[in-house]
Amino acid sequence: MASPILVTGGTGTLGRLVVPRLRDAGCEVRVLSRRSHEGAEGVEVATGDLATGEGIQTAVEGTEVIVHLAGTSKGDEVKARHLVRAASRAGARHLVYISVAGADRIPVVSGIDRAMFGYFASKLAAEKTIADSGLPWTTLRATQFHDGILLTVRQLSRLPVLLVPAGWRFQPVDAAEVAARLVELALGAPAGLVPDLGGPRVYEMAALVRSYLRARGKRRPILPVWLPGKAARAFRAGANLAPDRAVGRRTWEDFLAERVSAPSGS
Ligand SMILES: NC(=O)c1ccc[n+]([C@@H]2O[C@H](COP(=O)([O-])OP(=O)(O)OC[C@H]3O[C@@H](n4cnc5c(N)ncnc54)[C@H](OP(=O)(O)O)[C@@H]3O)[C@@H](O)[C@H]2O)c1
Question: Using CA of residue 147, residue 151, residue 157, residue 163, what is the dihedral sign?
Answer without folding.
Answer: negative
